[in-house]
Amino acid sequence: MKQLFQHAAVTEGVIVRVAVNFLPEQSRVDAGKWFWVYHIRIENDGDQPIQLLTRHWRITDGRGLVNFVDGDGVVGEQPLLRPGQSHDYVSGCPLGTPQGSMQGHYTMQRADGTLLEVAIPFFPLAAPATAS
């Protein structure tokens, strides 16, 4: 099945695309726990290799509570992308509310050693309404 990327951001030739899906089978709505999975594709449309070093996320729940997540790489990897290459990964986000949002940036290093802050687009997290 071809993934439909709903959100995208471009920073100096690096494109970050995001597709997000609510996972009812991983959620426990009765216990106040909702879970989403997101698929990210990072594309290097620039003219030199770049390596993803770190990630920075700003996760906001439906009450406006903000949680920051920082770390090395993505899902245990620090991929090197040559011009024209892309890297895909999938991760998840639990929340204590049925809606929220995520956004952030990656710190990447160019072949010449300079650092580049690459935007991760804002994307909403929204569980479908359920009939009571």
Automatic annotation (TrEMBL):
Gene encoding the protein: apaG
Organism: Novosphingobium olei
Classification via Gene3D superfamilies: ApaG domain (2.60.40.1470)
Alphabetical list of InterPro entries matching this protein: ApaG-like (IPR050718), ApaG_domain (IPR007474), ApaG_sf (IPR036767), Uncharacterised_ApaG (IPR023065)
Positions of the ApaG domain: 8-132
Protein name: Protein ApaG
A Pfam family matched in the record: DUF525
